[in-house]
Write a structure and sequence with these properties.
Shape: globular
Structural class: alpha/beta
Distance between the termini: 32 Å
Number of strands: 7
Order of helices and strands: EHEHEHEHEHEHHHE
CATH topology of the largest domain: Rossmann fold
CATH superfamily of the largest domain: NAD(P)-binding Rossmann-like Domain
Oligomer: single chain
CATH architecture of the largest domain: 3-Layer(aba) Sandwich
Helix content: 40-55%
Length: 252
């Protein structure tokens, strides 16, 4: 029987984050939903079977993150399950990648998860229980053209997971990453539009191009990613891993 825990999902307003929130709620956990769009969060909250809390905040704002944790703790107690999903893409040749794009990718995909994990760990360790899942990417494990900033940030996120997991291995806390390939999400929709604009392909052809980069020749679903996240939440023997959900594209 699942013991209901206090869960926090960042990037919970759509896509993978919304699917993870749904899976956690269906498993009996109370879920705090964090993202910038209050209307998106309200829609997700209304779809959940269990208790939820809407926390409209920018995950890259450290003061907002601290306020979010304080509010959750005041209402429900410490966060016991943390799933970080907030993210966005950026595409440009390395030589044309601006300092601003570089900084934005690192802030969103590496520094923001670091701050969230750092804030959650003390209470988890003190309680002898905690689950942290960073939704990373297969870009955490391999490089591709035109995504140097995104890839560097995602490699860093996997390094954060591995080091943190080693540090807390004896405490009852686990830290893992789930590494999706191309997922059928609004973020991929934006990538499709960018490819179509850059290459002159139709959007259907651009989407097929991304799907064919995965051996199963289709995009991953958000529920498939959420299922891998729940495996990390439910199984205390999984720690320090980067679990690929990519149709077999990266075998590691």
């Amino acid at each position: 029987m699942t013991i209901g825990r206090v869960a926090l999902v960042t990037g919970a307003g759509r896509g993978i984050g919304a699917a993870c929130a749904g899976a956690l709620s269906a498993a009996g956990h109370r879920v705090a939903l964090l993202a910038r769009s209050e209307s998106d969060l309200a829609s997700v909250s209304g779809s959940l079977p269990g208790e939820s809390m809407v926390v409209a905040a920018d995950v890259t704002d450290p003061d907002a993150v601290e306020a979010a944790y304080a509010g959750i703790e005041a209402a429900w107690g410490p966060v016991e399950v943390l799933v970080t999903c907030a993210g966005s893409g950026a595409s440009s040749p390395l030589a044309e990648t601006s300092d601003e794009e570089w900084a934005r990718m690192l802030e969103l995909h590496l520094t923001a998860p670091f701050r969230c994990v750092r804030r959650a760990l003390p209470a988890m360790v003190a309680a002898g229980y905690g689950r942290v899942v960073v939704v990373a990417s297969v870009a955490s494990k391999s490089g591709a053209p035109r995504v140097a900033a995104y890839t560097a940030a995602k490699h860093g996120a996997l390094g954060l997971v591995r080091s943190g997991a080693a540090e807390v291995a004896r405490t009852g806390v686990t830290i893992n990453a789930v590494c999706p390939g191309y997922v059928d999400t609004p973020m991929t929709d934006r990538s499709v539009a960018e490819i179509a604009a850059r290459t002159g392909r139709s959007e259907d052809a651009a989407r097929e191009l991304l799907a064919r980069q995965q051996p199963n020749r289709r995009l991953v679903t958000v529920d498939e990613v959420a299922s891998a996240v729940m495996l990390c939440v439910d199984n205390g023997a999984i720690n320090g891993q980067g679990i690929n959900v990519d149709g077999g594209a990266v075998q590691s």
